[in-house]
Write a structure and sequence with these properties.
This protein has a single domain, classed as 3-Layer(aba) Sandwich (Rossmann fold), CATH 3.40.50. The chain is of the alpha/beta class and 334 residues long. 49% of the residues lie in helices and 14% in strands. The protein has an eight-stranded mixed beta sheet with strand order 3-2-1-4-7-8-9-10, sandwiched between helices. A two-stranded antiparallel ribbon has the order 5-6. The chain is built from 13 helices and ten strands. Keywords: Membrane, Oxidoreductase, Transmembrane, Transmembrane helix.
């Protein structure tokens, strides 16, 4: 009898271990099987001093690339090979990045719009809500200022989230309405998660819009894609959650789940790297990659809605005089 009980316990433990392994394997996603010599290639990564941005930079360096990162943190930026100590929340900083890249390198091969922030409280810079500015608007301005500085077979990779699918069209319409040019839509009852997801949907839209813009303007040497890195067990949301007693305890109890089901930074960088190393002719322009493979976009991410959001971007840029009348930026809003 005791032997049977012992056997049942042993089998139960084995079953639990197998289940844990399967869960970890499912959620961790694949590693890219592509490698490519990056000798002579210049790559600019926003937010490349920690997290998946840093792991992306390290892998590209191993393949021989010259890697430039932007950073808000002077100490952390010292640990990366090349850095430009500016952030993406004001036009002068973005313009400085572009000027320095052109001065030192002339041309680049890949721009990875990886920087992402999330703010617990409603915060503005230049009249723009800060999460939206950092995660999208700064990348839009940077991308268009650099568009004439790509070598042949250039790539722009926008790091987004699969949660973009949660945004309904009526929510997007409300967000992009003229009545929201001061971001009052979310000011009274600020929902940082909703704001974050909207800013990442905007990254999907930027890929769609840039593809269409390049086609209409006969810019044939650049492709643009969006990538979802997966859900990452790193610093990102903890920095927001740590401000609250409730979030502290929620994080504590969720830690085992995150350890099992979330990716680490190395695994999270794989889809970005996959799109860096993939043969340029096979890269699906304007589209969305997840777990190192192409995934169809949901309707909310398509060009019709992208044009709606980019028109909103134009309106807030003009209202707040963000780019100081710089026609190189304004000409993109056709």
């Amino acid at each position: 009898m005791s032997l049977n009980i012992g056997l049942i316990i042993l089998l139960s433990i084995l079953l639990v271990l197998i289940l844990i392994i399967l869960i970890v394997k499912k959620f961790n996603g694949p590693m890219t099987n592509l490698t490519h010599s990056m000798d002579g290639k210049v790559v600019l990564i926003t937010g490349g001093t920690r997290g998946i941005g840093l792991e992306t930079a390290k892998d590209l360096l191993r393949q021989g690339a010259t890697v430039i990162v932007t950073s808000r943190n002077k100490v952390k930026a010292k640990t990366v090979i090349e850095n430009i100590l500016k952030n993406l929340t004001n036009y002068e900083s973005i313009k400085y990045v572009v000027e320095q890249v052109k001065l030192k390198y002339g041309k680049i091969d890949i721009l990875i719009n990886n920087a992402g922030s999330c703010f617990q409280n409603f915060t503005v810079s230049d009249g723009i809500e800060l999460t939206y500015y950092t995660n999208h608007l700064g990348h839009l301005i940077l991308s268009f200022l650099l568009l004439d500085s790509f070598n042949e077979k250039g790539r722009i990779i926008n790091v987004v989230t699969t949660k973009y699918k949660r945004i309904k069209e009526e929510t997007l319409n409300e967000f992009t309405s003229d009545s929201n040019l001061d971001f009052s839509w979310n000011k009274k009852n600020y929902n940082w998660m909703k704001t974050y997801i909207l800013s990442k949907l905007a990254g999907v839209h930027l890929s769609q819009y840039l593809k269409n813009f390049c086609k209409e303007k006969a810019v044939n040497n650049v492709k643009v894609v969006s990538v979802h890195p997966g859900f990452i067990n790193n610093h990102f949301f903890r920095e927001i959650e740590s401000h609250s007693f409730y979030w502290y305890w929620r994080d504590f109890f969720q830690s085992p789940y995150r350890w099992l089901c979330f990716k680490d930074n190395v695994t999270g960088a794989q889809t970005t790297l996959h799109c860096c190393y993939m043969d340029w002719d096979k890269l699906s322009n304007g589209d969305y990659y997840r777990d190192c493979h192409l995934e169809p976009l949901k309707p909310i991410g398509l060009l019709k809605n992208a044009k709606k959001l980019i028109a909103f971007d134009k309106a807030i840029i003009e209202k707040n005089n963000i780019v100081k009348g710089d026609q190189k930026v304004m000409q993109v809003f056709y």
